[in-house]
Automatic annotation (TrEMBL):
Pfam families: Aldedh
Lineage: Bacteria, Bacillati, Actinomycetota, Actinomycetes, Kitasatosporales
Keyword Oxidoreductase: yes
The UniProt record lists the keyword Nucleotide-binding: no
The protein, known as: Aldehyde dehydrogenase
The Aldehyde dehydrogenase domain, residue ranges: 48-491
PANTHER family attached to this UniProt entry: ALDEHYDE DEHYDROGENASE-RELATED
Classification via Gene3D superfamilies: Aldehyde Dehydrogenase, Chain A, domain 1, Aldehyde Dehydrogenase, Chain A, domain 2
Keyword annotations from UniProtKB, A to Z: Oxidoreductase
InterPro entries (UniProt xref): Ald_DH/histidinol_DH, Ald_DH_C, Ald_DH_N, Aldehyde_DH_dom
Biological source species: Streptomyces formicae
Length: 517
């Protein structure tokens, strides 16, 4: 009788970390050494800093770790960036456009290597890793095509833009911002995220530096580099993407100094269900909400559900969440197979996975009801691989107020559900985190949506559909504690990093005013 057993999965040939690293050494030998990446400052790749050990979240294997600078070297790097800035701001716009466009061509040429590095370094499935690279390239091309009108009557800042961003979108958020900032006439500095994305950013910056883009890329701890990257008088603007605790400290520093700033912070994005009946549409969207394990600033980890509709909600939700595909992003059954279509792979590291698992266990101990607990038993994994960073989807009803899952974004594949009986309770539950980036309200009645949506404290509110960050024409910011400083999106990203008319009031959340448009 024929053997019907499914063969074990194996790593797709040509996708190992060793393969990716060797390709980096070939493509950008100036930025990569045999055993480490280099820092980029003062127009040169420098073999300084203390390189830390690092592991890939997908299998626990060793990868290149950040070469962390000390405070004194970081300060020298910032001073050198100011010199670059003073020269670059006088480069004609046509030449800046040509250099940024050439950088985009180089990024396009090495798109698949950049994506493969993202898979290894931050655990993104192949589809999402390529999308991250493509969004960066396509987004910056939109600015290249329309930059003349955006810069009309504006000038570069007095100093370089300092970028401190989280690890989850190295290309479509960080590299995208850096190239637009440079296109607008600024030198740019980036701190490599400690948790992942280092080699991808290094390769991207190497391709940009070859085209003459005035980029600085350094690694180090926030406490060690903060004096240089946030408080230094040379810095013209601080752009930050990350958590509220770090963001609050940066906000205090830049407010005291009167420095231009863009601080995008987390919030608990919520999805409300009120007088709703189109359950098939909800079932269709649930798996998409688990993209990248909800490790996104615009993820939806909280559902606020009308109690009388809870049974119908569960009937729509549970089959969808059970269909979510989890596993190793590079594992295949046959070497000729394409890379798997997964919703998410690992979390960023084993420590985050343990923290989230512990929070779930604690919430259940204090009264939350587990409605769904996925398992890694049938996940798409290599035989015997390290699974320390993997967490299967979990859904909890009624997280207790004492749990971080009640009021904060979990940044992992954990959904929480809160039941409400009145519109006032719905709004209170949807506004639990004092501001969010996005929210959605599903209701059959357009008038109900028009009446309730302005009372939801999220910057973007969708009707029955998820909202996204957006990089082009659409304004992007946040309400409450989810955002401080200038808003971005479309021409506002350019305005945020340039100087306009005297006494200009940029849209944003500032200590002395708030302006949405």
């Amino acid at each position: 009788m024929a053997n019907t057993l499914t063969p074990p999965l194996s790593l797709k040939p040509g996708t190992s970390w060793t393969d990716a690293w060797q390709r980096c050494l070939t493509v950008a030998p100036e930025a990569f050494r045999d055993d480490r990446v280099l820092n980029l400052w003062d127009t040169r790749w420098q073999a300084d800093g203390r390189a830390l050990a690092a592991t890939s979240p997908i299998d626990g294997g060793p990868i290149a770790g950040p070469p962390r600078l000390d405070a004194a070297t970081a300060q020298r790097a910032v001073r050198a960036a100011l010199d670059q800035h003073r020269a670059w701001r006088h480069i004609p716009l046509a030449e800046r456009r040509a250099r940024v466009a050439a950088t985009l061509d180089a990024l396009t040429e090495h798109r698949e290597l950049l994506a493969l590095l993202l898979v290894h370094e931050i655990g993104k499935p192949w589809r999402l890793a390529r999308a991250d690279v493509d969004r960066a390239i396509d987004g910056v091309r939109w600015y290249v095509d329309g930059i003349e009108d955006m810069l009309d009557g504006r000038a570069p800042l007095d100093g370089p833009v300092s970028n401190i961003a989280s690890w989850n979108y190295p290309m479509s958020v960080l590299v995208h911002a850096m190239l637009v900032q440079a296109l607008a006439g600024n030198a740019v500095i980036a701190k490599a995220p400690t948790d992942g994305g280092l080699s991808c950013l290094t390769l991207a910056c190497a391709l940009a530096a070859r085209e003459g883009i005035p980029a600085t890329l350094v690694s180090g701890s926030g406490s060690e580099l903060s004096a240089s990257l946030v408080r230094a008088p040379e810095i013209g603007c601080v752009s930050f993407v990350g958590g509220r605790d770090t963001g609050a400290r940066i906000a205090t520093a830049v407010a005291d100094l009167g420095k231009r700033h863009i601080l995008e912070q987390e919030g608990l994005n919520t999805w409300g269900i009120w007088n709703f009946s189109d359950w098939d549409s909800l079932t269709a969207v649930i798996p998409k909400l688990f993209d990248y394990g909800k490790q996104r600033c615009t993820a939806y980890p909280r559902f606020v559900v009308q109690r009388s509709s809870f049974a119908e909600f569960l009937s729509a939700y549970l089959p969808a969440v059970r269909s979510v595909r989890v596993g190793h992003p590079l594992a295949v059954a046959d070497p000729a197979d394409p890379l798997p279509e997964l919703d998410f792979g690992p979390l960023i590291n084993a420590a985050k996975a343990k923290e989230l698992t512990d929070q779930v266990a604690e919430a259940i101990d204090r009264g939350a009801v587990p409605l769904h607990r996925g398992s890694l038993t049938d996940a798409h994994l290599l035989p015997g691989q390290d699974t320390g960073a993997y967490v299967a989807p979990v859904t909890l009803l009624g997280p207790p107020p004492s749990s971080p899952l009640h009021h904060a974004e979990p940044f992992g594949p954990v959904d929480t559900i809160v039941l409400v009986d009145t519109e006032a309770e719905l709004l209170a539950a949807m506004n639990a985190s004092n501001g969010a980036l996005v929210a959605t309200l599903s209701t059959d009645d357009p008038e109900t949506y028009e009446r309730l949506s302005p009372q939801i404290r999220a910057f973007k509110v969708g009707r029955g559909k998820p909202r996204s960050r957006g990089d082009r024409e659409e304004l992007f910011g946040g309400f409450g504690a989810s955002w401080r400083g200038a808003f971005v999106g479309g021409d506002l990203l350019v305005k945020a990093v340039t100087a306009g008319p005297a006494r200009e009031r940029l849209p944003g959340n500032f200590p002395d005013y708030q302006l949405n448009a």
